[in-house]
Amino acid sequence: MGVQKNKKSSELEIFRNFLKRQGMRYTPERETIIKEIISTQEHFDVDSLYISIRQKGLRVSKASIYRLIPLLIKADLIEEVFFENGQMHYEHVFGHEHHCHLRCQTCRKIEEFSDNRIAQIEKDLGKRFDYKIIRHKLEVIGICKECREKAGKI
Asked: Which residues, in sequence order, are CB contacts of 91 under 8 Å at separation 6+?
């Protein structure tokens, strides 16, 4: 439990310093939002984040969440993951190992995976096109075994 608290404290401190460098204030509302994101282990969208915060009896505006999301991305604390049903979904990435996503287009289940071959492909691409690769996002879309079985298509 202590490690998690230290991790949260360091993320809050990183964000405070980020805002300070941007000439922006660290407000209680921003802290409420970022604390909720830090505690979230699932992919989320603005609506689900807003509902989760409100269910805890805390007051934030959706507009504040929408304004904060780009700042959290720029501070490398969260990433955009995928767009679905008119909503961008995000995930908390600070302190987590980089991974890719395999998503079922039928049930929307997401499998997270890592594969060392992707790092080699990144290296090869950087060399071939003379790029300094910073990061990548990979999402593979398919139909999971359970959905294929339900549909009678193995």
From this structure: 42, 43, 44, 78, 79, 81
Backbone angles phi, psi at 100, to 5 degrees: -115, 175
The pair of structure tokens assigned to 148 is: 């294929």
Please check the confidence at residue 5 and state whether its pLDDT lies above 60. Answer: no
Annotation: CATH topology of 2-92: Arc Repressor Mutant, subunit A (1.10.10)
Could you give the C-alpha distances from 71 to 12, 85, 104, in angstroms and in order?
13, 23, 30
6-63: per-residue pLDDT in tens? 555 588 999 999 999 999 999 999 999 999 998 888 889 999 999 999 999 999 999 9
What global pTM score does this model have?
0.74
Q: What's at 119, amino acid-wise?
A: A
What are the residue ranges spanned by the domains of the chain? 2-92, 100-150
**Domain 100-150 part of CATH 3.30.1490.190:** yes
